Amino acid sequence: MKQFFSVADVANLSQLVDEALQLKSNPFTAANLGKRKTLGLVFLNPSLRTRLSTQKAAIQLGMDVMVMNMDKEGWALETKDGVTMDGNTVEHIREAAAVMGQYCDILGLRSFPKLQDREEDYSEDLFRKFMSYCKVPVISLESATRHPLQSLTDLITIREHWHETARLPKVVMAWAPHIKALPQAVPNSFSEWMCRAQAEGMVDFTIAHPVGYALAEEFTRGATVMHSLDEAIEGADFVYVKNWSSYEDYGKIHSVDERWMIDSSKLTLTNEAKVMHCLPVRRDLELASEVLDGPHALVIQEAGNRVWAAQAVLKRMLEQLLSDN
Ligand SMILES: NCCC[C@H](NC(=O)CCC(=O)O)C(=O)O
Ligand SMILES: NC(=O)OP(=O)(O)O
C-alpha cells in the first residue's frame, strides 16, 4: 500500500479487517518491521484519538514517530501556486512537504475543509499537493472529504460485535444535531466504506438525514437513504451517529423539525442497537448522555480500535516500502 486516502486504496477489505483483528489479539507480531523507519504525523487541526492511536500503532511496529502541530507551531503555509507571498503565509507547501519527506519514511496528514468553497474542498487540493511534493507514502489522518482510518476502525468494530451468521447486520448512519457547521468527511467516508462492505456482502446499510443534508452521490451509491429517523432505525443493529453540515447548501446548517438526537426512547425502535460515534461527541446535543453512559454505547471500544486500524495500515505500508527497497 503506497497511500491510504480512501477505500479505493484497499485491495481486499475483508483481509485488512482480519489483519487488524489479528494484531489486536497479538500486537507485537511485527514489532521489528518498522525498526529504523520514521513516521511523521502532521496536524493542521486538533486531534486526540488519531494522534495517540497512530503513534501507539507505529511504536508497536518498532517505528520512531515525530509529531508536527503545523497549525500552532509551524510557519503559516501557502498552498496556492503563482501567488506573490507578500501576505501572512511564510512557507509554501512545495518546500514544506518536500522537507518533511526528507526526514520521514511515511507521513500522515490531517487537514480539515474550510467549508467555504465546495469545489476547492472537494478537489482535495492541499492533500494532493502534500502527497505529490513529499515523495514518501502518505496516510490520511482525515482530509477535507474523508477519514479512512476512522472508517476502517468502524468496520472492524462492527465485525467484532456481530456474531450472527444467518443474516447481515443492519447498519444505520444517523445525522444528529450540532451547533457548528462540521465537515462531511466522517460521514462521506463511513458511507463509502459501508457501501463497499455492503457490495461485498458484509452489511446492510441505510443513511438517515433530514431533507437538505444529502451527501455527495459518489460516497452513497448503493445505500438506502431515508428522511425519517424513526423509520430508518427500525430494527437497526448498529446506529452510527454523526452530524454534518449541508453539502448542497455548502457548509450551512438548516434547522430541522423532527427530533434527531438518539436517546433511550429512540433505541427502543432498534434491535437493541449498538451505538457508535467517532468522537469527540457533544453530550445531550448530538447524543444523549443516558445512551453514552449505558450498555448500548460502543464509542470507547470503537476509539480503542483506532490503534488496530492504524497498525494494519502502517504494517501494509512498511511491507511495501521494504519490498520496494
Ligand atoms: N476527527 C473526528 C471528527 C472531527 C470533526 N469534529 C469536530 O470538529 C467537532 C467540533 C465541535 O464539536 O466543536 C468532524 O466532525 O469532522
Ligand atoms: N475520531 C477522531 O478522529 O478523533 P480525533 O479528531 O480526536 O483524532
Question: What is the strand and helix layout of this fold?
Answer:
Elements: E1 3-4, H1 13-25, E2 38-43, H2 49-60, E3 64-69, H3 70-73, E4 77-78, E5 91-92, H4 93-103, E6 106-110, H5 118-123, H6 125-134, E7 138-140, H7 148-160, E8 170-175, H8 185-199, E9 204-208, H9 217-220, E10 224-226, H10 229-232, E11 238-242, H11 264-267, E12 274-276, H12 289-292, H13 299-304, H14 306-324
Parallel strand pairs: 1-7, 2-3, 2-6, 4-5, 6-7, 8-9, 8-11, 9-10, 11-12
The structure holds N~2~-(3-carboxypropanoyl)-L-ornithine and phosphoric acid mono(formamide)ester.
Short description:
With 325 residues, the protein is α/β, with parallel strands linked by helices. The protein folds into 2 domains: 3-146 and 305-319, Aspartate/ornithine carbamoyltransferase (Rossmann fold, 3-Layer(aba) Sandwich), CATH 3.40.50; 162-297, Aspartate/ornithine carbamoyltransferase (Rossmann fold), CATH 3.40.50. It contains 14 helices and 12 strands.
Cα(first) to Cα(last) distance is 14 Å
Residue fraction in strands:
5-15%
Number of helices: 14
Structural class of the helix and strand makeup?
A: alpha/beta
Bound small-molecule species: N~2~-(3-carboxypropanoyl)-L-ornithine, phosphoric acid mono(formamide)ester
In CATH, the architecture of the largest domain is 3-Layer(aba) Sandwich
* CATH top level label of the largest domain: Alpha Beta
Could you list the spans in which at least 5 consecutive residues all have pLDDT below 50? Answer: none
Mean pLDDT over the full residue set: 97
> What share of the residues lie within helices?
25-40%
Task: Trace the largest sheet across and list its strands.
Answer: 1-7-6-2-3
CATH fourth-tier homologous superfamily of the largest domain? Aspartate/ornithine carbamoyltransferase
In CATH terms, what is the fold-level topology of the largest domain? Rossmann fold
GO molecular function, one term: ornithine carbamoyltransferase activity
Domain Aspartate/ornithine carbamoyltransferase carbamoyl-P binding: 3-160
Pathway: Amino-acid biosynthesis; L-arginine biosynthesis
EC number: 2.1.3.11
